[in-house]
Predict the structure.
Amino acid sequence: MKLIFRHILALCLLALPAQAEDVVLGLSSDKVAITATFEGSDILIFGAVKRETAIPEAPLDVIITVAGPSVPVTVRRKDRRFGIWVNTEKVELDAAPSFYAVATTGPLDMVLSNTEDLRHRVSIGRAIRSVGAATMAEDAERFTDALIRIRRDKDAYQTREGAVALDEQTLFRTSISLPANLTEGAYKTRIFLTREGRVVSELNTTIDVRKVGLERWLFTLSREQPMMYGFLSLAIAIAAGWMASAAFQALRRG
Amino acid sequence: MQIYLPIAEVSVNAFLLLGLGGIVGILSGMFGVGGGFLITPLLFFIGIPPAVAVATGTNQIVASSFSAVLAHLKRRTVDLRMGTVLLIGGLIGAGLGVFIFNYLKSLGQVDLLVKLCYVLFLGVIGAMMFVESVNAIRNTRKGKAPKRKKHNWVHALPFKMRFRTSGLYLSVLPPLAVGLAVGILAAIMGVGGGFIMVPAMIYILGMPTKVVIGTSLFQIIFVTAFSTMLHATTNYTVDIPLALLLLIGGVIGAQFGTIIGLKLKAEQLRILLAIMVLAVCFKLALDLLLMPSELYSLGMDG
């Protein structure tokens, strides 16, 4: 199936008019459904480079990023006060993605220059916005580093250098594994083509991650009708308690 | 089997939760406690966000106490009048508790407060129970009968009221105060407060032991139901699938617990409970005193 798709892509490339290098993209799925038994998901991202002119001398590199919805995050640091460890300092980061993966064809600092990284916010550190952070603590970078470290341990932030396979400077593919602890939202997916550290082409798309079925229903109910949701949880608790008591008595008699 | 919890937004093993509920159920069946003081720290441990663990814990206690109260009502060991007075204090306390909880959450100190409460109360109550049950065992070996003080300062207060089931003529102020204190703790710590309520009713109010557990459970149902509603409407942190899995495990565990409990002596049971309470307390205290491996923590409340 994948192979056929690639052939079709290759045919399309020949028919297209002359332009600079461009990305043609395919996704194994552009929707991820979080069901009750969701255990994470692998997404295959593949595509081709569309060009009319001859392949330039400098080698082509591909960078693929997938970013979850960005929300403000408060990072707190513990310190020893009165003999016990308590939260003391905090830094509020304006926006940090709940999930972030960067996959490249080579080492990130080789395939992307520092200025291009600043402009396009590609590396994990740059993807986190922390405008006012420096005023909240002297060593604000250490709070950002801590955020990256904690999320990296949970596979929520991934840097996978060399994970993008590139054939004949034209066909590329990689697979991004989304962990089970996923928040819902639009996951922005970007593909960059670079030569000698400069971005020559960029393509954006989104992967839609949503709770479905019972998960969706419970979550919506808890936000939109919290009263109903509260009563529902109590009703379940009371019913379970009553059934336990009844079953226990039936067992005793029998 | 992994299951995705829609409110906690984490994926956990369903059998782990069933097992956890089961273990706590066995203990609550053995000792007649709600088990909230065990389940909330255990939920922290497996990675449920603290706010969700506390709110869902209260919902789970509603179920286990309701089941137990039905059995006590049949045996007529519930003092409904005393329960109502405790309840009035408890509801006011639960409202205050959720207010304090939200205020501390904005300061980022909620984990600390919850842990400190646990260490303090588990330590004091565990130690008291341990000493008391060791003495009781010693006394029964010597053949002495246990004695109870009948009159203290509590009986000198105004607004007296007659509590027939408990056989008491007592001011309404001490039960109101006890209810208030337990209500605050229930909301902050995500526990029913049974392990504080029971000693307070025996030692401060002087109620007979046989009506204490039923009456305590009676008012715990309402206080925890009230805090569940408050958490659900103000914090949106009650996770129904999580509560349900804990419940199923708990209900089955409680039956085995009761069977084990019937084979042990009262003093032996109390010593075991005291040791367990002290062990949980020791573990939590250690976490506060030793340097944590990760000094930084993340909060989503902006």
About this structure: Chain A touches chain B through 62 residues (CB under 8 Å). Residues 221-253 of chain A form one domain.
